[in-house]
Amino acid sequence: MKFLLRIAAAIDALNTALGRWISWLILFCTLISALAATLRYVFDWGSNALLEAQWFMFGLIFLFCAAWTLRLGGHVRIDILSSRLSPRARVWIDLFGTLLFLLPVCLLIAVDSWNFFLIAYQTREVSPNPGGLAWWPLKFAIPTAFILLSLQGISEIIKHIAALTGERPLPDFKGGH
């Protein structure tokens, strides 16, 4: 189990580092939004590339911070029901939820979006808007992010099994894991 916990720690470290790095895009997205608005209203000049860059950054933030959010226990739960359960029961619910819902959905999306990316890559898909950006690189982010989310799900499974077997303490579920 110690080897698996080291794997889980490596996955946690990877997704934490990526999440922290990607979260800086929030600042850049805000600055580009302010720049686009200023250029449009002060200089009467617009840019499809700036608008699309905002959309792309928002998508990257959403996609790549999902695994970090899972690691922190920040995804939506039905706390009204689960808060009445013991920590052990909550770990079991998380374990089964990850196995039955999170992993199958993530892997399905990763596989399906890989084909979506390949088509975009082969056609060198770009924006239909004048001055827009290339879209195919962003489409690579979709399967990549869902693979990272799947890996984080595996990390959570390892940590839940370790908690259930006494290899590590049960989480307190106060503000996440």
From TrEMBL:
Gene Ontology cellular-component terms listed? plasma membrane
Membrane-crossing residues? 21-43, 55-74, 95-121, 133-151
Q: How does it sit in the membrane?
A: Multi-pass membrane protein
Q: GO terms for molecular function, please?
A: transmembrane transporter activity
Annotated Tripartite ATP-independent periplasmic transporters DctQ component domain residues? 32-161
What are the subcellular locations of this protein?
Cell inner membrane
**InterPro entries documented for this protein:** DctQ, TRAP_DctQ
Q: Highest taxon of the source?
A: Bacteria
Major localization listed first in the record, in broad terms: membrane
Per UniProt, the keywords (alphabetical) are: Cell inner membrane, Cell membrane, Membrane, Transmembrane, Transmembrane helix, Transport
| Entry-linked Pfam families | DctQ
The job of this chain, per UniProt, is described as: Part of the tripartite ATP-independent periplasmic (TRAP) transport system.
Quaternary structure and partners? The complex comprises the extracytoplasmic solute receptor protein and the two transmembrane proteins.
Q: Which family does it belong to?
A: Belongs to the TRAP transporter small permease family.
Would you tell me the protein name for this molecule? Answer: TRAP transporter small permease protein
Q: What is the source species? A: Candidatus Contendobacter odensis Run_B_J11
Phylogenetic classification of the source organism: Bacteria, Pseudomonadati, Pseudomonadota, Gammaproteobacteria, Candidatus Competibacteraceae
